[in-house]
Amino acid sequence: MDFKSGAFLYIMGGIIALFVLTQSVVFLVRAVRRGKAIGLDVKVMKKAAISSATFSIVPSVPIALSMIALAATMGAAFSWIRLSVIGSMSYEIFAAGQVAAAADISKEALGTMPINVFAGAMWVMTLGIIIGPIFNIFGLKRYQKKIQEIGEKNPRWSKILIDALFMGIIAVMGGQFIAKGIAAFGNLAAQQIIMNGQAQLLTLVTGAVLMAVFGLVIKATKAKWLENFALPVSMVGAIAMSVVYHGWF
């Protein structure tokens, strides 16, 4: 499996990381210049930059955890490339799993996939995720304009529409784990289909409960700064409990 940790992938990762960092520096310089042009105090800009950098670290924890988990299947180098720029754990694992299924490789054997299947997974994961940025380039302005028009005509319907779109995404990501969990608890399907279904469902529920607790605390205390910690803490807590759940079942 040396191809997963070869120099080529690390060089590609370094080039991509350098491009992203360069882009960030360019926008930072332009922001500072614009701030000075409109008369913002340099101290205010420095304070904003330090605050933004500080509160960017904690929300990055889920990305780091996802990268560690994905590395077991796709190797550290490619996982770094995929999740350090754009991507999500749920999509990446799903895409790799579909390629493995097409090649008649079980999910349990993903970590030992041959190089041709690994290359196929790389292409599917990369090309699939590009659709989002392409849509933003050519269709985001039209989409935003349409949403704005709907909001001006009927604000209530606009909110319902956006909430429905968001819940649709959640349903796609979490629905499979709910179905597997219910099937596993009720022994409604073959074991190879619902393997670890109970643990997966309980992990999902744990993460949801932790997020709900954070929401209640933030609402009760008006501590908006906790919003930056809600997702990473909930993820870490759910992962920790997942180890316990997998030991039970």
Task: Give the gist of this structure.
The protein has 249 residues and is mostly helical. It has a domain of 76 residues.
Task: Give a description of the structure.
The chain has 249 residues and is mostly helical. The protein has a domain at 174-249. Helix content is 80%, strand content 0%. The chain is built from 9 helices and no strands. It has helices at 7-37, 42-57, 61-74, 76-83, 89-102, 115-153, 155-185, 197-221, 227-248. The protein starts with 6 loop residues before the first helix and ends with a helix. 15% of the residues are buried.
Main attributes of the structure:
single chain; about 250 residues; mainly alpha; 9 helices; about 80% helix; globular
Question: How are the secondary structure elements laid out?
Answer:
Layout: H1 7-37, H2 42-57, H3 61-74, H4 76-83, H5 89-102, H6 115-153, H7 155-185, H8 197-221, H9 227-248
Helix pairs in contact: 1-4, 3-4, 3-5, 5-6, 6-7, 7-8, 8-9
Major sheet size, sense and barrel closure: none
Question: Counting H and I runs of at least 4 residues, what is the number of helices?
Answer: 9
Bulk shape: globular
The proportion of residues forming helix, as a percent range, comes to over 70%
Contiguous runs where pLDDT drops below 50 for at least 5 residues: none
- Average pLDDT works out at 83
What is the CA-based Rg, rounded?
22 Å
Judged by helices, strands and strand pairing, the structural class is mainly alpha
Number of strands: 0
Straight-line distance between termini: 31 Å
